[in-house]
Design brief:
Layout: H1 2-20, E1 25-28, H2 31-38, E2 43-49, E3 55-60, E4 69-71, H3 78-84, E5 92-95, H4 102-111, E6 116-119, H5 121-129, H6 133-151, H7 163-176, E7 195-199, E8 236-241, E9 243-244, E10 249-250, E11 254-257, H8 263-282, H9 289-302, E12 320-322, E13 329-333, E14 346-349, E15 352-355, E16 359-362, E17 365-369, E18 374-376, E19 385-386
Parallel strand pairs: 1-5, 3-4, 5-6, 11-19
Antiparallel strand pairs: 1-2, 2-3, 7-8, 8-11, 9-10, 12-13, 12-14, 14-17, 15-16, 17-18
């Protein structure tokens, strides 16, 4: 019963936004939005009218039943099936315009040729940005598993390892703690495996992806993360492996070192911790996202690391991002972003500095916005750990 009320709350959030935009119904089919509205991946379509019961038109799997479940072979059957149930064809229909392939969008628009079709992706992402209490509990469970895996990282390090070998061992720890492996990202040009392990000069390598830090990766077909470099004395190692343990993407980075790091690297790490702490104090409901970014820039400029902040050869234009069923949700902590923080938002804050030839330092944690401020979800040691 709890899952039914939870899914109803999520669907009602979408419906309330539809009312504001004078949208009569939505047709939802993309995996992440199916998970959000139906609790699982389904090949098919959720027809969600602004009033009345939603109807699930399923192609696969064939073992889901219920009063509001209808088996279909193709979407062209939907209008007639709606009319059989006495459901009027909507005047305005919302489709996932930023997520559907062009051909599929055109096909669905033709299925509902008497309707005006509009792009509903921004509306659904707005609904998903404010998490429900149950979603926040999912994050808390994911964070606990993430922390358990990271606490074991020093135990799998061996002298003479490459960054790839170290990454593989960390990925194994994550899987043993229940990580699902898949790393969901919004946008057709964003790709990643489970995360990245960056050390030395590889951390400076620019990436075509909108990541905080890049890395060459192993091949030009997936240019990001570990590239097979040996872990060398005096270098830092940043572990940024995404924690998808139950569909919700928990995000956390921690820094390790091979023997001692330079004083400059150690000071830069403390600057990142200061940024995190100052931003966390400032972050509360009603705060503009750009103000949090500007606070970070103020601190890093004052401390003399602005040219190394969030990259050297190519610098990321943000310090944090919303997380949820995808790793890049709203809000985004970036310049000129006028969105304000609201209770229920969950975001990753990741101030990072690269020291050339040594590697990256800094921190990343997942935070939930409360009525009073923010609460850290990934609460575990943040100092550099010597391997």
């Amino acid at each position: 019963m709890q899952i039914h009320s939870e899914l109803k709350e999520r669907r009602d959030k979408i419906r309330n936004l539809m009312v504001q935009k004078s949208i009569d119904a939505a047709l939802i089919t993309c995996n992440v939005n199916m998970i959000y509205t139906c609790g699982r991946v389904i090949s098919g379509y959720l027809y969600l009218p602004v009033r009345g019961n939603g109807i699930l038109f399923i192609k696969r799997p064939n073992n889901i039943t219920g009063e509001q479940v209808v088996s279909i072979r193709k979407p062209e059957q939907i209008p007639a099936l709606l009319q059989e149930r006495g459901v009027a064809i909507p005047e305005t229909l919302m489709l996932e315009g930023d997520e559907l392939p062009y051909t599929e969008y055109c096909r669905l628009a033709k299925v509902f040729e008497s309707s005006t079709c509009v792009n509903g992706t921004p509306l659904i992402r707005t609904a998903r940005a404010i998490k429900t209490p149950i979603e926040i509990r999912m994050f808390e469970k994911a964070a606990a598993a993430h922390i358990r895996a990271y606490s074991q990282i020093p135990s799998v390090y061996r002298d003479g390892m490459t960054d790839l070998e170290f990454s593989i061992e960390i990925e194994r720890l994550m899987r043993l703690e229940g990580c699902l492996g898949i790393f969901r990202v919004f946008g057709q040009s964003m790709e990643i495996f489970m995360g990245s392990v960056l050390t030395g000069s590889n951390a400076e390598a620019p990436s075509p992806y909108d990541f905080a830090l890049g890395g060459n990766g192993l091949d030009p077909t997936l240019p990001g993360g570990a590239n097979g470099n040996f872990l060398r004395s005096g270098q830092s190692v940043m572990v940024d492996i995404g924690g998808n343990f139950n569909g919700y993407m928990c995000d956390m980075s921690r820094v390790y070192s091979i023997d001692k790091l330079s004083d400059e690297a150690l000071r830069a790490h403390q600057v990142c911790l200061e940024i995190q702490n100052e931003v966390a104090v400032l972050a509360k409901p009603g705060t503009l996202c750009e103000d949090l970014y500007n606070k970070a820039i103020e601190i890093v400029t004052r401390e003399g690391f602005a040219d190394k902040f969030m990259g050297t050869r190519q610098q990321a234009g943000f310090i944090g991002h919303g997380i949820g069923l995808q790793i890049n949700e709203a809000p985004v902590l970036a310049p000129r972003v006028k969105q304000i923080l609201e209770p229920g938002m969950v975001f990753a804050l990741e101030p990072k500095i690269i020291i050339p030839e040594i590697g990256p330092v800094g921190i990343e944690n997942s935070w939930v916005v409360t009525q009073e401020g923010v609460r850290k979800l990934t609460d575990c040691p943040e100092e550099i750990i010597e391997l």
